[in-house]
Design goal:
By secondary structure, the protein is an alpha+beta fold. It contains 16 helices and 22 strands.
């Protein structure tokens, strides 16, 4: 496996190697032919195999590792239910659709999950020859009936080019020694049929950007390892910097200086913002997936002739410190930057944070020195402070091994975050104090309201209409589990709205006609001011909304609030009740409950304004966490 020799535009982007100094599995490769010697390819396969399984040296005497191995086996047992290669309508009885492409991806994911348990020592499935044969028959069924040349793709390109390909690649690495030459050829040909180029994706061959570019690059890279193709690995390395496009869609460079005519602007910005699908804030969605996939890819290429040496790789530190740390609250990811993922049961706050922690764990070996120590201190803090969902009890064996190594290191944890951080490029702000955190979600002419595609997040109408999320240390699971499915989406906390229920997905992917959203902060303190001009979608509602973060007091100010038609409401708070008998206090006085049943176990408070008569100044002060809200 050797890179193509000769100079490319990558030379302009190349710099000192950022990962070569610390490599888990060092390889000594010399330039030459484009294809690899068997030993080189085997070493790279072993590296990917270790990323998937934790390697062959798992210490099963450690109860925590034994528990992670048991979780792997349990997941495989669940995934294997209904697996039947003798069926004619589908490999799994509940995945038989030929119009929904996620049935194809999910089928491959289940095979990969089972293959992982088969490959991990200590699981009930480990080394089971009958299970191995069943997995091989399952792969054959998918290649014959669903995936590869000769099959017509349907529905979502992501499933064909990314989702299915990633899972099939993983299963193939895990089962490599049992595949045989003919089956391996069928697999790699099928994947290349859909995903031949790390720069392009979709049936009409669009430029891949942001997380999609890293996903596609990962597909091509693992396929290249399976085929012993050094040329393809060189193309992957170059694609991360977008050598073909002169860097216009580099996933490593900050987008601040990008000309919209030459790039989409998708990816990270110097202030920590991350945008995907042009103008959607997405740190907790596509951003975390980009970091996750890139951490795997960098690990695979580290120390080889295809290692990423672009100086922009140093920006990854900024991603972590400015783009993720301020948006994590004791294991939760602020929902304002998770896009449509808040509508997915498996992607609620603490589960999303797990992906971030796992990604940074993989990055640590490749960033020696100060950056590695910063990452180590952050990971230690993130793991320790999430007492709602114990990371060590939910992660996979490979990440657990890495986490235990980090926890044993002499680098101290960072300590609780106390900061006021604004992300101007995506109209969001985060305020962290020792006992609580606050997230403010706005939008403007620069940023979309919310995303609702693939029939997801149909009721995200007000996620950016000044939504204010209060995270308290005594209720870390408040926005996890059942909050988003049960909260009244027309009355999200902090928002000013015209009462009523819009149509499904109304206003998604729209910008405001107002430019103003943003603020300022006093350096070295947690004092900051933030505001927005609200011009609501689909109504004449207008409002000026401001938030003054004064350490432990948040003053929420609204003026010029009104609409020509409809009842205008500003929602003070809307929280899950831990105690059904709890009373809402306004200025220290219990507020009388409205007659009728409580809705979804939530308590909400709203203030209404007259139609077509803008209210004067109104202020709301949220005091220290754990105390009732007061209004004035």
């Amino acid at each position: 496996m050797r890179p193509v020799t000769g100079t490319t535009r990558r030379t302009v982007l190349a710099g000192a190697a950022a990962l070569g100094a610390a490599v888990t599995l060092p390889l000594t490769l010399t330039p030459g032919a484009a294809h690899a010697a068997a030993g080189d390819a085997a070493a790279l396969r072993a590296r990917w195999h270790t990323l998937l399984t934790g390697g062959s040296g798992l210490d099963l005497a450690d109860e925590r590792i034994a528990a992670a191995v048991a979780r792997t086996g349990k997941a495989a047992t669940t995934a294997a239910k209904g697996l039947d290669p003798s069926r004619t309508d589908g490999l799994f009885e509940d995945l038989t659709s030929t119009t929904l492409s996620n049935h194809v991806t999910t089928s491959f994911k289940r095979l990969a999950t089972i293959a992982t348990a088969w490959a991990v020592p200590g699981t009930p499935q480990h080394g089971d020859t009958s299970l191995r044969d069943l997995l091989l028959a399952g792969i054959d069924w998918m290649l014959t009936n669903r995936y590869g040349p000769g099959h017509t793709r349907f529905d979502n390109d992501w499933d064909w080019e990314i989702g299915s390909a990633l899972a099939l690649n993983d299963a193939s690495v895990l089962l490599y020694d049992a595949l045989g030459a003919d089956r391996l050829e069928r697999i790699t040909t099928a994947v290349r049929h859909y995903t031949p180029d790390p720069n392009l994706w979709r049936a009409d061959r669009q430029i891949a950007t942001g997380a999609n570019r890293v996903w596609v690059s990962t597909v091509v890279a693992v396929n290249a390892v399976l085929r012993d193709d050094g040329d393809a690995l060189g193309a992957v390395r170059d694609a991360l910097s977008d050598v073909e496009g002169a860097g216009a869609n580099s996933v490593l460079a900050f987008n601040d200086g990008t000309d919209e005519a030459s790039g989409t602007g998708e990816g990270f910005y110097a202030d920590g913002s991350f945008l995907q699908h042009y103008k959607h804030p997405y740190n907790g969605g596509y951003g975390k997936e980009l970091l996750n996939s890139l951490s795997r890819l960098l690990n695979l290429l580290a120390g080889t002739d295809w290692a990423v040496t672009d100086p922009a790789l140093d920006n990854v530190r900024g991603w972590v410190v400015d783009g993720f740390d301020p948006l994590l609250v004791r294991g939760d990811v602020m929902a304002s930057v998770c896009g449509r993922e808040i509508a997915r049961p498996s992607k609620q706050g603490h589960a999303s944070a797990q992906t971030v922690v796992e990604a940074v764990l993989r990055l640590i070996p490749g960033f020696p020195g100060e950056t590695g120590e910063v990452f180590t201190s952050l990971v230690k803090q993130w793991i320790a402070e999430d007492t709602y969902r114990d990371f060590l009890s939910v992660t996979d064996p490979a990440s657990l091994v890495a986490a235990l190594r980090v926890l044993d290191s002499p680098v101290p944890a960072r300590g609780p975050l106390v900061a006021h951080k604004q992300h101007p490029r995506m109209d969001k702000a985060a305020h962290h104090r020792p006992s609580f955190a606050l997230g403010i979600s706005a939008y403007s002419s620069r940023i979309y309201t919310y995303e609702s595609i693939q029939n997801e997040n149909l009721h995200g109408w007000h996620l950016s209409d000044g939504m204010v999320l209060l995270y308290t240390d005594d209720d870390l699971g408040h926005y996890s589990e059942d909050y988003w499915p049960t909260v009244d989406p027309t009355r999200l906390p902090g928002t000013t709205v015209v009462a009523g229920r819009p149509a499904d997905a109304a206003g998604q992917r729209t910008t405001s006609t107002a430019d103003w959203a943003g603020g300022t902060a006093l350096p070295g303190t947690t004092l900051g001011a933030y505001g927005m001009e609200l011009r609501a979608y689909g109504s004449t509602l207008r409002a000026l909304k401001s938030w003054f973060c004064l350490d432990d007091v948040i003053a929420c100010v609204g003026s010029g609030v009104g609409a020509e038609t409809g009842a205008v409401e500003t929602v003070v708070e809307n929280r899950k009740l831990r105690d059904p008998a709890a009373a809402l206090l306004v200025d220290g006085v219990p507020r009388r409950r409205r007659s009728g049943p409580r809705r979804h176990g939530l308590v909400g408070a709203a203030r209404r304004g007259p139609v077509a008569a803008p209210r004067r100044d109104r202020r709301l002060c949220l005091p220290r966490a754990g105390r009732p809200a007061r209004s004035a």
